[in-house]
Amino acid sequence: MQRKYVLNAIVAALLLLPVSVGADEFSSLLEEADAVRAEEFSPAAYAATKDAVRKRWIDEAQIQAKRAIANSLTVSNRFSKLVESRDRMHVSGAVDARRDLAERAEEAFSRVVAAVESDDLTRANKEAEMAALLTRQAEIVAAREQLTRPTSKMLAEARKHDGNRFAPENFKKADEGMKKVDRLVSSNPAARGQLVNESQNSLKMAEQSKEIGMMGNQMKKNPGMLEKWVVSRDNDLHAIAAAIGINIDGAKSREDQAAMIRKAIEQMLNGYETQLADAHKKIDELEGNSAELGEARYRLKLKREAEAKIAQLASLFDASQVELFLTTDADVIIRMKAMKFPSGSSIIPSASYDLLELASRAIDLFPDRVVHVEGHTDSIGNDAYNQGLSERRALTVKDYLDARYAENNRSITSAGLGEDRPIANNEKAEGRQKNRRIDIVLVAPPMKN
C-alpha cells in the first residue's frame, strides 16, 4: 500500500512537470518572433516568451510567441510609416547627432508599442501621432548631419584653397547641390535614394573644387607646373590617337583633337557592328536562315559578351560581398550578398550605399539591358509578411538606382518574391542568411528581327 502511494505521488509529480521538447522547437519559436522584430514591437510578450523557453514551458512559450508575433505584425502594418521613419532615424545616426531628440522619439514609440500590447488601438493611434512628429524631427536633424555636413565642410576647405576662384562652376554646383539636399531632407526625408545620390554628387564636386584650387595656387607659386600639365595632357591625347591608329597633328586645337578621336572611335564601333551584321547574314544564308539557330547564336553571343564584361569587373568585387553570374538565358545577376538590411526593415544601411555604387559600375557596362531588382527573404515569418518585406526592400533599391540613373533614362523595375526562390536550405541559419538577399538582374535584350 505504501509503495503504491509513493508510485502514484511520483506519477502525479511528473505530470506537473513542464513537457520536455527539443531545443530546435524552442529555437523555432524565437526565430519566428525575431523575424518580425518582436523584441522591439512587442517587448513584454517577447520577454515572456523567452522566460517560458528558459523554463521549458512549451505551451506558455507558444502562447506568448503567438501574442508577440501578432502584436509585431500590428505595429508593422498599422504604423508602417512610423516604423520606416524610425528606421531611417537610426540609419542616419540620430543618437550621435541629437541624442535628446532620438531618446524622446524612442520613448514615444515605446508608448505606441505598449498600447498595442494592451490591445488599446485607439490610444496607440493617438500616441503614434506624437511619435511620428518626434521621430521625423530626429530623422531630419540626423539626415542633415549625415548628408549635408560633409559637403559643407568640404566647401569650406575648397574656399580656403581658393577653389571658388579657380573652379567656380564646380564650387557653385556643389553649393547648390548641398542646398537642394537640405531642402529635400526637410520636405521628403523618405526619398533616401535621391538624397544619398545628390549628397554624393555635391561632395564630389566640392572635392574637385578643392583639388583644382590647390593646383591653381601651386601653379601661381611655380608657373612652370602649368607647362608640365599642358604637355602631359597633349601626350595623353596623342597616346590615345596612336592606339586607335589616327594622326591628330593637323588639328588646330585640343578640342579639335578630342573631336577627331571621338569620331574615329565612333567609326570603329560602327564598322565593327557592320562587319558583325554581315557575318551573321552570311551564316544565316549558309544555314538556311533557321530562326531557332539564329536565336541560339544570339544568346551565345550575349553570353560571351557578358562573360568578357564580368571578367573586367572581377577585380572590383569581393566575392563575399557581391557575386556576378550568368543565367542560361544570358541574364546577368548581381547578387548583393553583403547588403544587410536591419531586421524586418527596408531601409538601406549607410555602409551598403558604397556597395550599390560598385554594382552601378556593373550596370554601366550593360547600357542596353533592363535593370530588374528582386527582393528575397528566408522562410521565417508568415508568407504575407515576407512578401511585403521583399517588395519594400526591392523598391528601396530601385529608388536609389532611379536617382542614380535619373539622367540616363534607364528602365528599372522591381519585384518582391518573398520566400519563393530560396538558393539554400531554409532549415539552417547559414542557408536562411543566404536566402535573405537582393538580386539585381540585367535582363538580356530580345533578338531584333
Automatic annotation (TrEMBL):
It holds the Pfam family OmpA. SUPFAM superfamilies: OmpA-like (SSF103088). It is found in: Cell outer membrane. Residues 328-446 form the OmpA-like domain. InterPro entries: Bact_OuterMem_StrucFunc (IPR050330), OMP_bac (IPR006664), OmpA-like (IPR006665), OmpA-like_sf (IPR036737). Residues 1-23 form the signal peptide. It comes from the Bacteria. Its main location: membrane. Residues 262-296 form a coiled coil. GO terms for cellular component: cell outer membrane. This is Outer membrane protein OmpA. The lineage of its organism: Bacteria, Pseudomonadati, Pseudomonadota, Candidatius Mariprofundia, Mariprofundales.
